[in-house]
Amino acid sequence: MKCIKIICLLFLVLSVSKTTAQEFKLGKVSVAELQERAHPKDTSAVAAILFKKGKSRIEYIQNDGFVMVTEVETRIKIYKKEGYEWATQKVYYYNNSNLSEKVRFEDAVTYNLVNGSVEKTKLNSEGIFDENFNKVRAIKKITMPNVKEGSVIEYKYSIRTPTDRLIRDWSFQESIPVNYSEFVTYIPEYYVFNSRQKGYISPKVSTQLNRKTITIVSKERSESKNTQTSFSSDKIDYSETQTTYVAQHFPAMKEESFVNNIDNYTSSVAHELAVTNFPNQLPKSYSTNWNAVVKTIYEYDDFGPELNKTGYFEADLKEILNGKNTENEKILAILNHVKSNVKWNEYFGYACDNGVKKAYKEKSGNIADINLMMTAMLRSAGLTANPVLVSTRANGIALFPNRNAYNYVIAAVETANGNVLLDASDQFSTPNILPFRALNWQGRLIRKDGSSDEVNLMPVKPSMDNVFLSYTVDAEGKVLGKSRRQYTDYNAMITRANFNGLKEDDYLEKLENQNGKIEISEYARTNVNELMSPVVESYSFVGNNLSEVIGGKIYLSPMLFFANDKNPFNQEVRQYPVDFGFPFTDKYSIAITIPEGFTVESLPTPALISMENNVGIFKFDIAVKGNLLQLSILKQINEPIVPAEGYEMLKEYYTTLVAKESEKIVLKRI
Q: What is the pLDDT of residues 484-542, one digit of tens each?
């Protein structure tokens, strides 16, 4: 009897596990998947990847040799309307004369539950699009039909790459939960690929060795009177390493404030070809360290040789340097000349597109055209200038040596006081004030001899935001005042960009709405075009909604619309760094005149917060002199990047800061 009970229990467990286990196979969508209304581990999820399986294999094709074939199958559950964006899928691929990939979507179907039955809607040709992304890459895009809350979509695609050297990166995490992700590589013994994983959680990895056979068919023609063609075949046996990565129940990567690029911390694997070793050939090494990578890049026709071209600018350079004797004068003159005469065409890249000579003539070029041109000019002016390879924030951090790690280049001038970093692609850049997109940890400086050094791209000098605010409160709580604000360095660059392309009336309307519906008058700006000077913005204002009058008392936040009312850090735990981009110092000098017939009933108390390791400080002081209140407030962050270990400290810092700035001054009648 006991044996029968055990058998029945085992049968029940197997039955339950069979019905609840997910089928990792296209076309097997279950009613249970369609009925699911929320993700079991993350009820806030707008969608989830139920499974995603990929294979990348190097296979031999007659007449083509070894090529890379990638196949991906995916099933996604849509929970909420906000998840509809997952019904559009994109595959980026190379589409140029040097590398032309073929992408094909298949078996794309939307599933819905209609009156208890599974309804299938297949993707037709109208939902498939091809778009150009840039001059070397394109996008194959699908938009799934009939998507609703509760839908399940699935599709597969294949990519054929006419090279044996490119294994695509694979992400095990997304901005939505991933229930199951599997990636398998099949690499013949003739290749050595270095694999690099990143992220704070890792997939399980297993390997096995497979035996493979290549059949090579040869064709021969006889030279006899009657020409005949004969065919022969040869078989070559080789071993293949199969590596399988499996991730289960990986949580969504959720954006939070001050994240450089969330992909830097997402669980993923990347591969870089290190060595090929074919029979009867000498082994060939590829990019194995940074010096080898930069030496290869420097020798590209569209990189190093472009730095040696000088004839096209020599006459202009002589003129712009006339009377410029110091290093700083020469640097600034050349930077401004390039910015004024060659406009960025919005294309990235460390390799020239048009070439420096053509770009100078046509007054347009990509990042490399512009900044390699500037580097050549700086060298011609007698300065020690070199290009610096950069990976932009959107491109991610260059974690390991490979030629695709970088997508940008700037210039550096070596001086007695250190490197001066320059980028002529942004109209508001100045020496050592780079566009924000280029502030991404480390760059790599390349010298003429092929040697290289890491260069810190992150600013050291704090950018200032100085606010001088004076205002009067009347007995009805109406506020009349004046504001003067001074911005330096990166704060000035951001402010100039905010001004740019926006009519002053539109800008003021936006400013009024953001600042409690105030009315602005006597508005003025200075030094907008004098890039080496601070930007200054001043105006008078009237506000009817900046205080509250309750029971004859006036309640007032002393910083008015300059106060922070929300802590930017709200996660319980954060596993990746906080990236402010640049250190900053915000100072507020505030003078408040209270109305006649009123006195102060209560004030915010002074406060001082000092974070460990001099990461930052917050000071809040207030004093009363008759009917005048004076406030002095300092908010200072000294590090552009704070490690994850400092997250709790930062969170507490901002919690206290927000609470203090939200405290009210209470005025009562005498």
A: 999 999 999 999 999 998 999 999 999 999 999 999 999 999 999 999 999 999 999 99
* Res 343: pLDDT: 97
Compute and round to an integer the Cα radius of gyration of the chain. 32
CB neighbour list of residue 380: distance below 8 Å, 6 or more residues apart:
310, 313, 314, 317
- CB-count burial class (<10 Å; 0-12, 13-18, 19+) for 638: middle
- The pair phi, psi for residue 424, each rounded to 5°, is -90, 10
Q: What is the DSSP letter of 122?
A: E
CA–CA separation, 466 and 491 (whole Å): 10
Q: Which residues pair with 85 in a beta bridge?
A: none
Q: Would you state the structure tokens that stand for residue 70, as one six-digit string?
A: 């990638």
**Interacting residues of 654 by C-beta distance below 8 A, sequence separation 6+:** 564, 567, 568, 569
C-alpha to C-alpha distance for 514 and 604, rounded to whole angstroms: 24
Q: How far apart are CA 340 and CA 373, in angstroms?
A: 13
Residue with tokens 């094909």: 104
| Residue with token string 């919690």 | 655
What is d(CA 640, CA 463) in angstroms, rounded to the nearest whole number?
A: 11
Secondary-structure breakdown of the chain: helix, strand, coil percentages, each rounded to the nearest 5: 20, 40, 35
The whole-angstrom separation of Cα 175 and Cα 251 is 8
Q: Tens of pLDDT along 555-591? A: 999 999 999 989 999 888 888 899 999 999 999 999 9
pLDDT value of position 292: 84
Beta bridge partner(s), residue 665: 556
Question: Which pLDDT score is estimated for 5?
Answer: 40
